[in-house]
């Protein structure tokens, strides 16, 4: 086979591979968009954060419990540098190159750690995982956040956990 034909064939195989990957990504995006509603917009006037800002890597979001099922819709699957702020009303993730993400306090289910999730495996307990619901009856989502230091990870986990701890019940009034 002449060199020109070999190069042309190799180029066609490469282009076909790129097209197949792009098609697969689009199908996954359509599938997850049908299953996962869009997260709420970031509210204006959040005020001073209770904790943060903390620089993290927004690893990705997956369906809860399945660290390999990436949610591609609504830019939830895009890895990006981010800044996390914990506010009384929820969590604000300011991500670079993709829209910011806001998780309202009442939609946070749990906070934990993991060894990793799709594409990022920093080691046992070194990835912070925020589990939340896209709506009150929506599917649960795991969002992975990688902090550069264990001190930042522990402090952020504590601040996030404080959001899901129920507020103490008011003391009963004294009867006279």
Architecture overview:
By secondary structure, the protein is of the alpha+beta class. The chain has a domain at 51-164: Pleckstrin-homology domain (PH domain)/Phosphotyrosine-binding domain (PTB) (PH-domain like, Roll). The chain is built from 2 helices and 7 strands, in the order αβββββββα. The protein has helices spanning 3-35, 150-164; strands at residues 51-63, 80-87, 90-95, 101-104, 108-114, 127-133, 140-146. It has a 7-stranded antiparallel beta sheet, covered by helices on one side. A hairpin with a 2-residue loop joins β2 (80-87) and β3. The model has no long low-confidence stretch (mean pLDDT 83). It comes from Cellulomonas bogoriensis 69B4 = DSM 16987. InterPro entries: PH_bac. It holds the Pfam family bPH_11. This is PH domain-containing protein. Residues 37-160 form the PH domain.
User: What is the annotated CATH architecture of the domain at 51-164?
Assistant: Roll
The largest pleated sheet is described as: 7 strands, antiparallel
Residues in helices, as a percent range:
25-40%
CATH class annotation of the domain at 51-164: Mainly Beta
CATH third-level topology of the domain at 51-164: PH-domain like
What Rg, in angstroms, do the CA atoms define?
21 Å
Strand order, sheet with most strands: 4-3-2-1-7-6-5
Q: Which structural class is indicated by helix and strand composition?
A: alpha+beta
């Amino acid at each position: 086979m002449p060199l020109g034909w070999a190069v042309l064939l190799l180029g066609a195989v490469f282009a076909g591979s790129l097209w197949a990957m792009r098609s697969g990504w689009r199908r996954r995006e359509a599938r997850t968009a049908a299953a996962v509603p869009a997260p709420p917009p970031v509210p204006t006037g959040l005020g001073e954060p209770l904790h943060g800002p903390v620089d993290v890597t927004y690893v990705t979001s997956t369906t809860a419990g399945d660290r390999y099922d990436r949610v591609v819709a609504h830019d939830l699957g895009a890895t990006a540098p981010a800044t996390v702020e914990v506010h009384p009303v929820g969590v604000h993730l300011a991500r670079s190159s993709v829209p910011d993400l806001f998780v309202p306090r009442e939609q946070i289910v749990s906070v934990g750690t993991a060894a990793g999730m799709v594409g990022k495996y920093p080691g046992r307990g070194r990835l912070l995982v925020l589990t939340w619901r896209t709506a009150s009856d929506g599917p649960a989502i795991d969002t992975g956040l990688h902090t550069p230091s264990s001190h930042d990870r522990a402090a952020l986990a504590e601040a996030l956990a404080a959001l899901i701890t129920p507020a103490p019940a008011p003391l009963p009034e004294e009867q006279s």
